[in-house]
Write a structure and sequence with these properties.
This protein is of the alpha/beta class and 232 residues long. It has 6 helices and 7 strands. Helix 1 links the parallel strand 1 and strand 2. The longest helix has 31 residues. The radius of gyration is 16 Å and the shape is globular.
Length: 232
Amino acid sequence: MTSLTGSSILVVGATGGLGREISQILNAEGALLTLHGRTPERITDLGIPAARVTGDLLEPETAAQLVAAALNAHGRLDGVVNAAGVVAFGPMAEVSDDTIDILMAVNASAPIRLLRAAHPALIESSGNHRDPFFLTLSGVVSESPTANMAAYSASKAALAAFAKAAGRELRRDGIRFVDARPGHTETGLATRPIQGFAPRLPAGYSPADVARRIVDAIISGERDLPSTAFAS
């Protein structure tokens, strides 16, 4: 894929700190966007020309609704960026059942459902030689599970394992599965945990820089973005 011009791309979690930056760059690259957020107002505030769709990722039917919105808007789907996620902090012994359920539902189950829903459209895109892709952000904790973030690390490690296995299957269909694992990035997510409080963290990466690296990987045909890919 040497150009994103005219590519139909669904961005899930487009109103988040990283999803916003990715969406802005994809728009500048000429992609036809379908942007997902929790509320219409937050999507509108992005100021990006795009189809807009809301939906709660805790609901199993949302994945299919997001894909349908992209197909209705642009007639095809060439790529999916899953930039949605939630975080929690605190000792393993104190994590609540609700926190475990939400972490696993949003960070692991939702992307699995999303790929399942998008698979037929991405196969069609491959048949038309558009180099379709599905991109997730399992993050550095999937490589280095972190104390006092054990449940969060587990949800992201589950996503990374899915990426590795599903990516092998998708190669046969001509679809790229790209898993990005940047280190701590200043997206503001750490200030909005669903449980606990963030420890003192070192200064993180710039969301704009991480987003640019991710979009460059999409364009250049990369299949894996380990934490070291963001070090420079």
